[in-house]
Each structure stands twice: as structure tokens, then as C-alpha cells.
Amino acid sequence: MTMNNYSTIYEAVGGAKGIEGIVQAFYPKVQRHPLLAPLFPEDIFPVMEKQIKFLTQFFGGPSLYSDEYGHPMMRGRHLPFPITPERAEAWLSCMREALSETDLPQPLQELVLDRLSGPAHHFVNQP
């Protein structure tokens, strides 16, 4: 499987089912991470639902997030939370680990991480 066979990352990761699997593998890691866990509510399911909608849209699928919540404005939505460069890297590390548990080919995992790296670092709002 290569990206050449798909028009979007959303399709390449398996569409809705693939995005859901990534998010389900990802958030338990976030909840266990000492730098990230304090930023998230105990009831993680609403966060997971938003993340599924956002990643669906971000990777070229239906505009589920915007349809329900309006323009993502993700930097602004993350401003209330102290996001440091270390937390951005921790977030990416959890995503890397979650992706490694999928059956996605390594080049596709790296593409997903590369696409998420920009926003993760864009949300940094603390030194």
C-alpha cells in the first residue's frame, strides 16, 4: 500500500474505521503520559470523538469537525492549555506509538506523523 493508490491520507489509513482505530490506540497513551495527562479530562470520550472528527477532516475526509463545531481554529482552541515544546513532542511520541500498533506501512505512519508535526508545534504557547 502506497499513497499513490489513494487521493487522501484519510483513504490511505482506512477511512473512518482507520481514524477511529488510531484515536482509540492514541488516547490511553496520552492518559498515561505524565506531561499530557494533566491537560485532559478524566472522561476522555468527548475528546476522542472530537479528535476523530478533526483527523477525518484534516486528512482529507468529510468535514465532520467543521460541520459540527465551525472552523477548527485549533491554535485558539488550545490556548487555554499550557503547551510546551516538550508537550508537543510527547503528543507526537504517543501518536507514533499508536501508529506503530496499526497495520499501516511505515512510510504512511511517517507521513501521518509529519502532517501532525506542524500543528503540534504550532500549538506551543509556553516556553
UniProtKB/TrEMBL annotation:
Classification via SUPFAM superfamilies: Globin-like
Domain of life the protein comes from: Bacteria
Gene3D superfamilies given in the database record: Globins
Pfam families: Bac_globin
Molecular-function GO term, any one: oxygen carrier activity
Transmembrane segments: none
Record keywords: Heme, Iron, Metal-binding, Transport
Keyword Metal-binding: yes
The UniProt record lists the keyword Transcription: no
Residues noted as binding heme in the record, renumbered to the chain: H121
Family: Belongs to the truncated hemoglobin family. Group II subfamily.
Name under which the protein is recorded: Hemoglobin
Species classification: Bacteria, Bacillati, Bacillota, Bacilli, Bacillales
